[in-house]
Amino acid sequence: MVLVSINCITFNHEKYIAKAIEGFLSQKVKFQYEILIHDDASTDKTAEIVREYEKKYPEIIKSIYQVENQYSKGIKASLINEKRASGKYIAICEGDDYWIDPHKLQKQVDYMEANPNCTLCFHNAEIINDNGINFNMRLISDKIKSRVFTAGELANLGFIPTASKLYRRSAFENPPDWYRKSIVGDYPNQLIVASHGYAYYIDNVMSVYRSGSFGSSTDRFNKKTVEEKIKYVMGFIEILNNFNEFSNYRYSTHVEQAIIAREVQIIEWNKDLKKLRDIKYVDYLKSMNGVDKLKFFFRMYFREPYMKLARAKNIISLFFSSLRR
């Protein structure tokens, strides 16, 4: 009986997909697992590579090869894989990321089997660029150690490594309609799943996140105009508002903090100093650590290098007032 279904979405990942699949096959486990690969009509050799692996491991690898790209139609391919999954748990890894710890799945399953109220388990990941250069950086701060997270705390943690997630399939069998319309899938997924129990973070680096690869979220975001970035962030605010209602406002304090953080991003891009003086944003700035605070005001200043002296004074004044607790 299959215990874990690996959900792998891939599109034009010719350079990376073999490494992702090898990471799946390298897992040393005491249970059965299946590898569900959804190729979203790749135009390179991704599908060919997947087919070669499927021929070698027909009992484990089960693939779908789309003729038309589903993402461009607004369809979440991860849900297509989810519907055909037979495992008690779903493990996520997109085709451009990969696992580096052969005991990753076993460690996560051991915890979740021993803790039935845990609905999501995730871990840290190292970051490399499109050329495979290691930045010697982790996606999650070294200051955060293994611990329990509520869904509300996850809203503020921000991006967690997609390739690190293992969750109970039962916690996501009937996602709400607003999930299907969400601007992204991974962020609302982690909130919804964790709201059915809790999330557990393992402070081990067990996967690799590839930053800036073709078609990745970072690649798509970096190519957006300021107006498109604002629209994108507003999509996250919509997710948070929908989740707040979905969870009957159980996590409203954390969710509202996450919304404010994104509103501050929009204020920064709009260079709206007047709005920044609102008490909720002043309180948010005061809560930032010194380095992040300095970076924020530095960006505000240099977004318009030839600003009037009065505006420069305004920014400096806001910075020093934010230091007062």
Features:
single chain, 10-stranded mixed β-sheet, 10 strands, globular, 325 residues, alpha/beta
3D architecture notes:
With 325 residues, the protein is of the alpha/beta class. The chain contains 14 helices and 10 strands. 45% of the residues lie in helices and 20% in strands. Strands 1, 2, 3, 4, 5, 6, 7, 8, 9 and 10 form a 10-stranded mixed β-sheet that branches. α5 runs parallel beside α10 (252-270), α7 packs parallel to α9 and α13 packs antiparallel against α14 (309-322). The longest helix has 21 residues, at 226-246. It starts with a strand and ends with a helix.
Largest sheet: 10 strands, mixed
Cα separation of the termini: 57 Å
Q: What is the helix fraction of residues, given as a range?
A: 40-55%
Question: Low-confidence segments, ≥5 residues, pLDDT <50?
Answer: 305-313
What is the approximate shape? globular
User: Approximately how much beta-strand content do the residues carry?
Assistant: 15-25%
* Overall number of strands: 10
Count of DSSP H/I helices:
14
What gyration radius follows from the Cα positions, in whole Å? Answer: 21 Å
Specify the structural class.
Answer: alpha/beta
**What is the H/E order?**
EHEHEHEEHEEEHEHHEHHHHHHH
Mean pLDDT: 88
